[in-house]
Specification:
Length: 318
């Protein structure tokens, strides 16, 4: 009977694939070594520019302009049925080269004592410990948690979320507390407020309410970033936004991030109206246990200049 049958691949075919995999590993290592040599050249160039006062972040834009586009094409001798697949493989090799380049460049620069770090890409600014939010039981609970990280917190209240955000944008108050998610879904009105005001997410916590049955998350936001410490066992999150028509595809971005041991927590599609035109974005939240996002941020700065960092935080799930 059909239920008694099972798929049994040819031993010759599986053996051939195994041999090809071994060959591909050798070629891949050679490729990584060549990319590493390219990164060495970029580090030497960076050190030369550093000697004349150019900082590491500005150097990256110069390197990005000079990064070589290696011409690769599918041979006319290849089977016509395979050409689309081969073109996809070449595209993957290109993005992986860039991911390895950013990673090796970051490692080698650190060995030269000129290391990049998250703060280079996500600058922190010391703020007064002043807070604003729309008063209600959930926001009060969020404030009680957020304020524990500060020595002298002072709070005022706003009539609505838009007013709270404006007070922070105008610099009258340092931080505002906003509802960010409900039942696992981002609140579109708050997402748009953050987009329009260019505020950054500093921390996110769940709020349970008096009956402990609420499913809401609140965010602490400000005009600058707050870099959470890398503590063993902590989940850290980096949130970015890129245009849907970016020069790099979403799948390529996620593939590159995976090479750094970075996972994807959430991907959303956003639409904002600007000057009468609807513009699409991907919102991507990366995560990882005690992960450092420096290599990923180097990659983004080099090869995805359209990206916007929305926030960096940890312990999204407490």
């Amino acid at each position: 009977m059909l239920s008694d049958e099972f798929f049994s691949p040819s031993e010759i075919t599986t053996s051939n694939i195994a041999f090809l995999s071994a060959d591909e590993i050798l070629i891949s290592e050679r490729r990584i070594c060549e990319v590493a040599e390219l990164a060495c050249e970029a580090v030497r160039f960076s050190l030369e520019l550093a000697e004349v006062g150019v900082d590491g972040f500005d150097v990256l834009s110069v390197i990005a302009d000079g990064y070589p586009d290696v011409d690769s094409f599918v041979s006319e001798d290849s089977l016509k049925a395979n050409r689309r697949r081969l073109e996809y493989i070449l595209s993957g090799l290109s993005i992986m080269d860039k991911a390895h380049f950013a990673d090796v460049y970051t490692e080698l620069l650190a060995k030269e004592g000129r290391g990049l770090n998250e703060n280079v890409f996500l600058p922190e600014v010391m703020e007064d410990e002043t807070f604003v939010y729309v008063k209600n039981a959930y926001a009060d609970e969020a404030y009680d948690v957020f304020s524990q990280e500060f020595s002298d917190p002072r709070v005022r209240y706003a009539d609505n979320l838009r007013e709270a955000v404006k007070l922070v944008s105008d610099g009258a108050v340092s931080y505002c507390i906003l509802p960010l998610e409900e039942r696992g879904a981002r609140l579109s009105s708050v997402t748009e407020l953050l987009y329009r005001s260019e505020l950054k997410i500093n921390s996110v916590i769940p709020v349970f309410g008096m009956d402990a049955d609420a499913d809401i998350k609140y965010a602490l936001v400000s005009r600058s970033f707050y870099i959470p410490k890398i503590d063993k066992g902590d989940d850290r999150y980096l949130e970015i936004r890129i245009p849907t028509d970016s020069g790099i595809g979403l799948s390529e971005l996620l593939f590159a991030a995976g090479s750094y041991g970075v996972n994807v927590y959430r991907v959303n599609t956003l639409m904002f109206k600007t000057m009468g035109e609807q513009i699409g974005y991907y919102s991507v939240v990366f995560c990882g246990e005690d992960v450092d996002f420096t290599s990923l941020l180097t990659f983004l700065t080099l090869f995805v200049p359209e990206y916007t960092a929305v926030g960096i935080y940890k312990n999204l799930e407490l």
